[in-house]
Amino acid sequence: MPNKRQAAKRARRDERRREINALHVSRMKTAIRNFKKLIQSKDLETAKAKLPFVVSMIQHAAAKGSIHKNEAARRVSRVTQLLNKALASNEQK
Questions:
Q1: In 21-93, at which residue ranges do the beta strands (DSSP E only) sit?
Q2: Which in 4, 31, 64, 82 has the greatest CB count within 10 A?
Q3: CA–CA gap between residue 54 and residue 77 (Å, rounded)
Q4: Dihedral sign, CA of 12, 16, 21, 23?
Q5: How many other C-beta atoms can be found within 10 angstroms of the C-beta atom of residue 13?
Q6: What is the C-alpha separation between 34 and 54, in angstroms, rounded?
Q7: CA–CA separation, 9 vs 41, rounded Å?
Q8: Cα Rg, the chain, nearest whole Å
Q9: What is the pLDDT of residues 29-81, one digit of tens each?
Q10: Can you give the pTM of this predicted structure?
Q11: Which among 81, 79, 83 has a CA at the least distance from the CA of 42?
Q12: Taking the CB of residue 87, how many other CB atoms lie within 10 A of it?
């Protein structure tokens, strides 16, 4: 239990921020997971259409401070690379 009033306020604020951050990160991870499932099931047209949504969720989490900007850039790069690799292998066949 905090000894000072300001510490109690900070504890309450930190709890609210933790819940909000968890919400943003959870939404982002769910979007990425669903995107990867689309690529694994070879549904590349739907995956191509979903890419802007996934990127948006990642950037939203970064804008709200739930994840670092560099982590967001890395995740965007990886999902884009994943789609491009799948599209390239699909065109070769």
A1: none
A2: 31
A3: 11
A4: positive
A5: 10
A6: 9
A7: 48
A8: 18
A9: 999 999 999 999 999 999 999 999 999 999 999 999 999 999 999 999 999 99
A10: 0.89
A11: 83
A12: 15
Question: Residue 91: what pLDDT?
Answer: 83
Q: What one-letter code names the amino acid at 23?
A: L
Between CA 13 and CA 11 the distance in angstroms is 5
| Residue 77 confidence (pLDDT) | 98
**Where do the domains of the chain lie, and which CATH numbers do they carry?**
5-92 (1.20.58.110)
Contact criterion met (CB below 8 Å) for 75 and 46: no
Around Cβ 17, how many Cβ atoms within 10 Å? 13
- Separation between Cα atoms, residue 73 and residue 4, nearest integer Å: 40
